[in-house]
Specification:
Number of helices: 7
Order of helices and strands: EHEHHEHHEHEH
Distance between the termini: 37 Å
Largest sheet: 5 strands, parallel
Shape: globular
Structural class: alpha/beta
Helix content: 40-55%
Length: 153
């Protein structure tokens, strides 16, 4: 199950791959359609499933992405399903995107300088790891409570 879904134009795939590699290096599981779709299967259901499972959506905001209906659907889906949306502004500014996108705190990735985004991805990866630890602890507690209830009968 991916932690992060990257929404991007296929024309910007190299940037998306760099961001995925950076997030993976910090321990996050990332879905990138250009790398993670199964060959020979219909891609739309796989994209929807990954989008639904991810809590975070990184939107690679470029001129290409703003022209893509698929990208706009993915970003809109993130907004309406209350996912954590992170716009990463590459060759556009926050003023050039819709207010419902620019209202989310984003990252200005000027000159494709990945050092600008590294601390942010590291911080997000740490939040993801903490959320997973809490989830595991909750499952252990629930399992323990069920076992206790069964044994106390």
């Amino acid at each position: 199950m991916p932690d992060i879904f990257i929404s991007y134009s296929i024309k910007d795939e190299e940037i998306a791959k760099e961001i995925k590699a950076l997030a993976n290096a910090h321990g996050a599981d990332v879905f990138l359609s250009g790398e993670d779709l199964s060959v020979g299967t219909e891609w739309s259901p796989q994209i929807k499933e990954a989008h639904n499972k991810a809590d975070w959506v990184f939107f690679i905001a470029t001129k290409n992405a703003l022209k893509s209906m698929n990208v706009m659907q993915e970003v809109g889906g993130a907004f309406f399903s209350s996912k954590k949306l992170v716009p990463i502004f590459v060759d556009v500014t926050p003023e050039e995107v819709s207010p419902w996108i620019s209202s989310h705190q984003g990252v200005l990735l000027q000159d494709l300088n990945m050092s600008a985004i590294t601390p942010i991805i590291s911080e997000i990866a740490e939040k993801i790891k903490a959320d997973k630890r809490i989830g595991v602890l909750a499952l252990i507690l629930i399992f323990g409570a069920v076992v206790w209830a069964i044994n106390s009968k």
